[in-house]
Specification:
The complex is a heterodimer.
Chain A: E1 2-14, E2 19-31, E3 35-39, H1 46-53, E4 61-66, E5 69-70, H2 76-86, E6 87-90, H3 102-112, H4 117-130, H5 146-158, E7 164-168, H6 176-193, E8 196-201, H7 204-209, E9 212-217, E10 220-226
Parallel strand pairs in A: 3-8, 3-9, 6-7, 7-8
Antiparallel strand pairs in A: 1-2, 1-4, 4-5, 9-10
Chain B: H1 2-10, H2 14-54, E1 57-60, H3 64-67, H4 77-85, E2 90-104, E3 109-117, H5 119-125, E4 148-152, H6 153-158, E5 162-166, H7 168-176, H8 181-187, E6 193-195, H9 198-208, H10 211-225, E7 226-228, E8 233-239, E9 245-256, H11 261-266, E10 267-271, H12 272-279, E11 288-293, H13 299-309, E12 314-317, H14 318-321, H15 323-361, H16 363-372, H17 376-412, E13 414-415, H18 420-425, E14 431-432, H19 438-464, H20 468-473
Parallel strand pairs in B: 3-10, 4-9
Antiparallel strand pairs in B: 1-11, 1-12, 2-3, 2-8, 2-11, 4-10, 5-6, 5-7, 8-9, 13-14
Helix pairs in contact in B: 1-17, 2-15, 2-17, 7-10, 15-17, 15-19, 17-19
Classes of the chains: A alpha/beta, B alpha+beta.
Chain lengths: ~230, ~475
């Protein structure tokens, strides 16, 4: 079942001096349950592509359909709401809210969606347990290691049961052990719960784990390999 | 969750938030306490004016106030008094004869208004009788074979009825009141001296004491040097009903002190029967009826009702008699609001500055929040709430401190003794009891919340303009 369709997408940045074609006619489809990595060197356009998939940026040309909804057809407030309900985000530098505990960070999106307390508590515990942090629910980000913070970020990304999770360089700031733990957790969530993960990365460890590797260079897809 | 996050965000950078909170606290405390002092002074002034000087309503001939013509008395006074007494809301009525004249002693004279009163009814309407300076007599209580006059402290000083003297007993009293020996030594050369006036006493004493000594012991020295001879004499002269000059020697019944030099200088009270005998007026002939009401709030209703019933007489309520006082009481709440708005506007710039820094520092976080699903309304609310919490913490702390200080000083008051003459010259008491209504605290709290909201608008709009993708790229 297709959950994401990218059709002939272009992104052109027009500055006063130069015109940068960051994404050049990319078309991709993603099925539910994929564990895919978009790889490429710095400046290849992978983060721009990920931003457009997440509705954080708009294509200059082309269409992005998430679960048959064209993101370009959504108004600003509807797009934010759509993102909240359908797309999970994991960022390179964790981006947790520093004044909130791990539990509160995970609950945040559920609160915006006005879940009741019981549902929130159950879901939060379930997610923090899934990322192995059920004993750190009341810790603030400053009291957690980088790997632990990124695991909280994964739990937060999954809080609203999104269609897929976009992870932009999720392991870039982590040591090998933390990277391995994080990838194992995400792989397990993908396999057992069917959650779709799309990474942008140039980390070989992520590429190794990914079952689909899309290579981007100069804004174009130069290969799209599925592992068996 | 947005409320909780906003509250926690306030304390994210404790030092910076505390600086803003403390500045708001000081601003609100300063503003509220200053207003409480001003309000206390004004309320005391209004109370004193109504209770000691003019009462609530006056009735007189329509032309009487133009030049205080002795001929213009109230027509059918007995019936009018009886009718007014029976009016709902009226507590008491006192008739008065009002004549302009001169008060003279051997050395000085002054223009005065002589009020012929009936002490019994006057007591029911005004509390002036309760302001007699101890040791100077009473309000026509004691039997006397003389004609008596009840005069103000300022007039007594002006006419040299009150004098200042330094002698051994006065120096002993000062020593008992713990005035240091070195100060007393400076006063010894004046021992046995009676000063001609308060002015000359002050001039001499200031000449020998340092500024610090004057500030610390001046009031005590003045108090002990004050001297008055019972039943001192003065002459009152005026025109009688036939426009012939007349007058008589009056002994001082007592000296009143209402902390209003202007009134004290000009108003001399004598018994109506004494005045009638001199002016040739009938003993039941009066120029003015002064009325005390049960409730100040009913002034307008009762005065309007009286105006309808008393044809041919002028009825004036206290706001018409003293329009400047009325204007002050009517304007004062607006002035307080403007005063607080100015303080809060100044504080608002501090809050705006703080919140702009917040938005700048949290660009990436705000980008993340927008990315994961916080819409513009919620981002705006979160920043606005943080600003409101910041303002409220500082504001409510300021209110609590000012409330505590107002309560602490309300009982004993604040004595601006050093400026007493200035205050009294303007008709204000120098001993002020700060007071402020609960509704004012509510108004200030609402103003603080509004300040918080307004201060957040510009920073919040800045936050709303952030592009999430770009914001997430910032370091």
């Amino acid at each position: 079942m297709k959950i994401l369709e990218i059709k002939n997408v272009h992104k052109i940045y027009n500055s006063s001096e130069v015109k940068v074609h960051a994404v050049n006619d990319i078309s991709l489809d993603f099925e539910k349950g994929e564990f895919a990595a978009i790889v490429g060197p710095s400046g290849s356009g992978k983060t721009t592509l990920l931003n457009m998939i997440g509705g954080l940026d708009t294509p200059t040309e082309g269409e992005i359909m998430v679960d048959h909804t064209n993101l370009a057809g959504l108004k600003s407030s509807a797009l934010i709401d759509f993102r909240m309900r359908n797309i999970g985000f994991v960022f390179q530098s964790y981006n947790l809210i520093p004044v909130l505990t791990a539990k509160e960070n995970v609950e945040f999106i559920m609160s915006l969606q006005k879940w009741n307390k019981k549902e929130k508590d159950e879901r939060t515990y379930e997610l923090l347990k899934a990322v192995g942090l059920e004993d750190r629910i009341n810790s603030r980000p400053s009291k957690l290691s980088g790997g632990q913070q990124q695991r909280v970020a994964v739990a937060r990304a999954l809080a609203s049961k999104p269609k897929f999770v976009l992870a932009d360089e999720p392991t870039a700031n982590l040591d090998s052990k933390s990277t391995e733990t994080l990838l194992d957790i995400m792989e397990e969530l993908n396999k057992e719960e069917g959650i779709t993960f799309i990474f942008s990365t140039h980390d070989a460890r992520v590429v190794k784990k990914a079952r689909r590797v899309i290579t981007v260079e100069d804004g174009k897809v130069i290969s799209d390999e599925r592992k068996k | 969750m947005i409320w909780k996050t906003a509250w926690k965000n306030v304390w994210r950078n404790k030092v910076r938030s505390l600086v803003v909170i403390i500045s708001i606290t000081i601003g609100i405390f300063g503003g509220v306490f200053a207003i409480a002092v001003m309000n206390g002074a004004i309320e005391q002034k209004v109370d004193a004016t109504l209770n000691d000087e003019i009462a609530h309503i006056h009735i007189n001939d329509p032309a009487f106030r133009d030049n205080y013509d002795i001929q213009l008395s109230v027509d059918q006074p007995e019936q009018t008094i009886a009718m007014v007494r029976n009016m709902p809301g009226v507590e008491a009525v006192a008739p008065r004869t009002v004549i302009t004249g001169m008060a003279n002693t051997a050395t000085k004279s002054a223009g005065v208004q002589i009020l012929g009163i009936n002490p019994e009814s006057e007591r029911e309407v005004l509390q002036l009788c309760q302001t007699t300076i101890p040791g100077t007599g009473d309000f026509f209580d004691a039997e006397s074979r003389y004609q008596l006059a009840y005069i103000g402290e300022a007039l007594a000083k002006e006419l040299n009825i009150i004098r200042y003297r330094i002698d051994e007993s006065m120096l002993d009293s000062l020593a008992k009141r713990e005035v240091p020996a070195e100060v007393l030594e400076k006063l010894v050369p004046f021992s046995g001296h009676r000063f001609k006036s308060e002015k000359s006493f002050k001039k001499e004493v200031k000449g020998v004491l340092s500024m610090k000594e004057q500030h610390e012991y001046g009031a005590v020295i003045k108090e002990e040097a004050w001297s008055f001879r019972a039943r001192s004499k003065m002459t009152l002269t005026f025109l009688d009903k036939d426009q012939m000059q007349t007058g008589a020697v009056f002994r001082i019944a007592g000296i009143y002190d209402i902390k209003n030099s202007m009134y004290e200088m000009s108003q001399v009270l004598v018994q109506n029967e004494d005045l009638a005998a001199l002016t040739g007026m009938a003993s039941n002939e009066y120029h003015q009826l002064i009325i005390r009401l049960d409730d100040l709030e009913s002034t307008k209703v009762v005065s309007e009702s009286l105006k309808g019933k008393l044809d041919g007489l002028e009825v004036m309520n206290w706001k018409e008699i003293q329009p400047e006082l009325a204007m002050m009481t009517d304007m004062v709440s607006k002035f307080y609001a403007i005063f607080m708005v100015i303080i809060l506007a100044a504080l608002a710039f501090g809050i705006v500055n703080k919140m702009l820094m917040v938005v700048l520092e949290r660009t990436k976080e705000l980008g993340m929040l927008t990315a994961i699903g916080m819409n513009k309304k919620r981002v705006f609310s979160m920043i606005m709430l943080e600003s409101v919490f910041l303002s409220l913490v500082g504001g409510v702390t300021g209110i609590i401190i000012s409330k505590a200080l107002i309560s602490a000083t309300a009982r004993k008051g604040i004595n601006f003794a050093s400026y007493a003459e200035g205050f009294e010259a303007m008709g204000y008491p120098a001993h002020i009891y700060p007071v402020i209504s609960t509704s004012f605290f509510i108004t200030v709290t609402v103003l603080i919340i509004i300040t918080g909201i307004l201060s957040s608008i510009y920073p919040a709009l800045k936050a709303l303009k952030l592009d999430p993708a770009e914001a997430l790229r910032t370091e």
